[in-house]
Amino acid sequence: MDLLAIETSGEIASVALQRGDTVWERRLQGYARHAEHLLLAVHAVLAEAGLTVERLSAIAFGAGPGAFTGLRLACATAQGLAMPWSLPLVPVGTLEALAAQAGEATVLALADARMGQCYHAWFRCSGGRLESLTEAGVEVPEAVPLPPADGPWHIVGQGMEALWPRLPEPIRAGALEVVLDATVQARDLLRLARRAFAEGRTVPPWEAAPYYVRDKVALTAEEQAALRQRRMPAP
Amino acid sequence: MHILGIESSCDETGVALYDTSRGLLAHRLHTQARMHATYGGVVPELASRDHVRRLPALVREVMSEGARDWTELDVVAYTAGPGLAGALLVGASFAESLALALDRPTLPVHHLEGHLLSPLLAEPRPEFPFLALLVSGGHTQLMAVRAVGDYRLLGETIDDAAGEAFDKTAKLLGLGYPGGPALAALAEQGDPARFALPRPLLHAPTLDFSFSGLKTAVALKVGAPDWRAEYAADLAASFQQAVVEVLVAKTMAAVRATGLPRVVVAGGVGANRRLREALAEAGAEQGFAVFYPDVALCTDNGAMIAFAAALRLEAGARVKWDRRIEVHPRWALEGLRQG
To answer: CB-based contacts of B206: which residues, under 8 Å, 6+ apart?
Structure first.
């Protein structure tokens, strides 16, 4: 199968194309240049592999969580490429991709969410399969849930160096291996996406969407009014 | 030639398929107004989130209704600005990627060019040159249009757009958001002479507009101790009358200054009944004809983007093959030339 993967959720964007056992990839550094150079990179890996979009089996994209604009860039790009040729899309979660780097273990995947918070989810990886133990959440590090299974466990985090000391002590104490500066590359999406494709876990472009996790991004008019009321001094 | 048009610059997702020999084949629009109403205004992040959810389904419907195969598409046109950066980026990424997949070029379109050329999609079709009055929630401008790509800015708002003033005033009167159309409906039952409101810049020797002081005047009336809810219709009518008088007076001044015999009105406020009546009277008096887009194309939409691209291509514009996804959240229409 011929699989294209697009990952633009973080600072280093990348695309990867797998054909048989060969992988072609391109990396793009720095937020500002993702959009400008992304399709040139897609074009380059396709040309190197001697493929056109229409001959791909599926397109995987880094669905998130991560930088909102980056998530939409990957999703909209995958949608646009897939539409005319009815290609299936494979959304791959950032936290899943991080957890998959740990090998066979119970894993806590973490990613910096800005605003002093982090994204988190627990997984168990056994026999090459990744099983989700908790739903992904976004919270201050102190509120990251304790492991749902007995230890020890691995921790794989992205941009988590500064937030690490704020994680609950039992989580830190029970960790066998800790990586705080992991990154997710398009190449990392390929393995998870291949399995998802084989198991039929794909979506058509019109059902594909980023996985933001942080869903509360604005106050409703009612909440704004309540906030104003609270701020008003008592009569 | 078949052109797909994609619009995602603010809170409407629009897609259309235009055939240069047969006209508009299909168009679809999804408005996010109801979603943003909960927040009392457009939330840019939520707008972007909705665009990426809606766009592929709308494109699919348009291609199916237009009964064209993907390989029959010749150019993918999209709004590249001005507008909300994140929202624009969704349309641009999708459009550029679609074009790459089909090995076709793209044509980035200026949102306001789409609006000001949209009356040319209607019947009767105005001839060049004409004066364009762009009045929407985001823009209030008078432009001299000599040909496709030849636009000269004569005047614009120095603060709020006319549509924005309608929406903000509606909010003050408790009509929700976006309340512009509700305000106009309420104004129908009111007495436009009841409240004396300012006509900002009416007699200034400029074609610029200003509407924020008018909104403040309304806020003072509503906040006054003798304010009563039953005055709302009269205040709405007085407000609308003030806006319409200013828009019409500046339009008449622009016609006098340029000698242009035709006025084209585009943008959401162009659907306002009182404005249309007043412009018709002014046109009869001063000897200019007034043209509007179809009501369905007054708001943001994909049809105007596909159509503007068609006119630009006809005028010799070069298509884009570089595959770069670039948007221009701030982009002056004036100085836009055939490239």
So the answer is: B155
Average pLDDT, chain B: 94
Residue pLDDT, tens place only, A75-101: 999 999 999 999 999 999 999 999 999
Residue A233 confidence (pLDDT): 65
CB contacts, 8 Å: A40 with chain B: 323-324
Highest CATH level, class, for B2-116+298-335: alpha beta
The whole-model pTM stands at 0.95
Domain spans, chain B: 2-116+298-335, 128-292
Record: contact B97-A81, CB cut-off 8 A = yes
- Residue B59 touches partner A, C-beta closer than 8 Å: yes
In the structure encoding, which two tokens stand for residue B134, read together? 């762009």
The reply to whether B100 touches chain A by the CB within 8 Å rule is yes
B-chain CB neighbours of A45 within 8 Å are none
The Cα-based distances of B184 to A163, B166, B175, B311 in angstroms read 53, 8, 11, 34
- Spell out the residues 6+ positions from residue B338 whose beta carbon is closer than 8 angstroms to its own: B148, B149, B312, B315, B316, B317
Bridge partner residues of B209 (DSSP): B157
CATH T-level topology, domain B128-292 = Nucleotidyltransferase; domain 5 (3.30.420)
Q: How far is CA B38 from CA A26, A214, A219, B41, B176, in A?
A: 42, 18, 9, 8, 9
Residue B335 has pLDDT above 90, yes or no: no
CATH T-level fold of A95-179: Nucleotidyltransferase; domain 5 (3.30.420)
Facing residue for A218 by CB, picked from B45, B98, B99: B45
Q: Is the pLDDT of residue B338 over 50?
A: no
**Nearest partner of A123 among A164, A153, A144, A143, judged by Cα:** A153
CB-based contact A170:A148 (threshold 8 Å):
no
* Residue A23 CA: distances (Å) to CA of A11, A82, A94, A125: 22, 20, 20, 24
**Residue pair B187/B274 in contact by the 8 Å Cβ criterion:** yes
Chain B residues close to A13, C-beta within 8 Å: none
Q: How far is A41 from chain B (nearest CA, A)?
A: 10
Reference B160, options B129, B135, B189; nearest CA is B135
Query: CB distance B86–A43 less than 8 Å?
Result: no
Name the residue of chain A whose CA is nearest to B325's CA: A36
Task: Specify the CATH number of the domain A2-94+184-207.
Answer: 3.30.420.40
> Considering only alpha carbons, which residue of chain A is nearest residue B52?
A76
Domain-by-domain residue ranges, chain A?
A: 2-94+184-207, 95-179
Contact A83 B60 (CB under 8 A): yes
Of residues B46, B53, B99, nearest to A217 (C-beta): B46
Of residues A37, A48, A42, the one with CA closest to residue A60? A42
Closest CA to A211 of A32, A75, A7: A75
Which residues of A are less than 8 Å from B103 in CB distance? Answer: 52
Which DSSP string corresponds to B196-226?
----TTTTSSSS-B--HHHHHHHHHHHHSTT
